[in-house]
Amino acid sequence: MRDARAASPGTPAEGPVASSLARRTLGDLRERLGGWWPTRLDLLLSLAVGVAGLVESFGRQGPASGQVQHPVAMAAGAIAAGALLLFRRRFPALMLLALIATGVAVRTVTGDGYYAAWHFYSTLILVHTVASASELRSRRGLAGLGCVLAAYAFLQTLQSNDLAEVMISAIFVGVAYGSGILLRRQIDETLRLAERTTRLEVEREERARRAVEEERARIARELHDGVTHNVSVMTLHAGGVRMLLGDDRERERDMLIGVERAGRDAIEELQLMLGVLRDYGGSRPEAHRPGLDRLDELLAQVREAGLDVRLRTDGEPRPLPPGLGLSAYRVIQEALTNVRKHARAARADVVIGYGPAELVVEVVDDGAAPVLDAVAPTAGGGGPAGGGHGPRQAAGGHGLIGMRERVTMHGGELSAGPVPGRGYRVAARFPLSGPSGTC
Question: Which residues form the Signal transduction histidine kinase subgroup 3 dimerisation and phosphoacceptor domain (predicted)?
Fold first, then answer.
């Protein structure tokens, strides 16, 4: 008893497991059979013909004329006819021929001329299916029509029919065939309407997308024409004032140079950002956005200006988020601009390090002139130490602020300061998110 009770809790679990296995097996069978698998309508028609044939065979059995004298053979024929209906959608014409063969076999076995109702019903169902399967003008349609005529001719041999009975059979077969044609045309029309509706929906979405793109382009043009024009005017005025200053106004000239550079950078940034609005494809703005993949173009421009720049990459390069790649590019660009314009350096080394969890960007120049008041290395700041006011700090203060903002935006740190002896170093560290430090 104890063993039986111990085993009983596992018994109910076998039911769900067996049921789940049966469902999986049935699902696999459906997938393999594909179009062979009968629908619920096929099952219903098959069941109706089979049950009606059984009722007719055993309910009308008897020795008299007009009764079923061999009920078993007649019932077997009814069950066979019902089974043929299960595959009516897959092979409609072939099933109709098989039904004729079933009728011939039943009549051969029974030897009487009993007109079986189940045979007539099955014939009408298969005639309807044949007509709905293919276009009459096709080769398959003509073959199906030939099978329908053969089935109708066989119906007339089951008993001695008068003209009225022949006409009635013709009407029923004709209606079954005509209804199949109408059903097929209705299905074709429904498919055409569905296709047209889908096409119109796609066109509507495309028109809406183009309307949004055109509106974005219009806004971009207005912003570009207005904002960039005003910034350009401000930059030109600052340059004009700088040219009017004498040589004794070095500090004011440097400040105006910074204003001009800020104006040019602002125009460049506006063109970059507004290009996103102007673009129609949705993917091209990224192609115009600077990143480390376009660093060679920047270094080529700097070399043309007379500065010897060398690039070294540590680690395995990998794709970076567009925003982070843009910020790293801007840090290198700003650092090289400061070197070229204010450091009086002959050489600069650019180092890009791809670490497991961070990206390090470093620009070091040889700084031909000594830095009087050094800017000490800072983390996330890049500001002066001890309130120094050396030439490098005065010239590059605004640039350091911009670089610091870009690095801090990504959660990184910026350090800037002199190197032992002479020269200057700007280093930015960007943390990389994702598994194993991947972006």
Answer: 215-279
Among residues 126, 160, 194, which one ends one of the domains? 160
Torsion (CA) 175, 178, 179, 185 in degrees, nearest 10: -170
- Residue 426's beta-bridge partner residues? 363, 416
CATH of the domain at 370: 3.30.565.10
Instruction: Tell me the residue range of the domain where 130 lies.
Output: 17-160
Q: Which of 160, 179, 213 is a domain's end point?
A: 160
For the chain, what is the mean pLDDT?
76
What is the percentage of the chain residues whose pLDDT exceeds 90? 9
pLDDT score of 359: 93
Identify any residues that bridge with 134 across adjacent strands, giving them in sequence order: none
Higher pLDDT, 377 or 122: 122
304 domain-assigned: yes
- The Cα 402–Cα 265 span in angstroms is 11
Q: Is residue 359 part of a domain?
A: yes
Number of domains in the chain: 2
386: left (phi over 0), alpha (psi -120 to 50) or beta: left
pLDDT exceeds 80 at position 351:
yes
**pTM of this structure:** 0.43
How far is 343 from 149, CA to CA, in rounded Å? Answer: 101
In a domain, 219, yes or no: no
* Domain-embedded: residue 365: yes
Burial of 161 (0-12, 13-18, 19+ CB in 10 A): middle
Is the Cβ–Cβ distance between 381 and 294 less than 8 Å?
Answer: no
The Cβ of residue 171 has, within 10 Å, a number of other Cβ atoms equal to 10
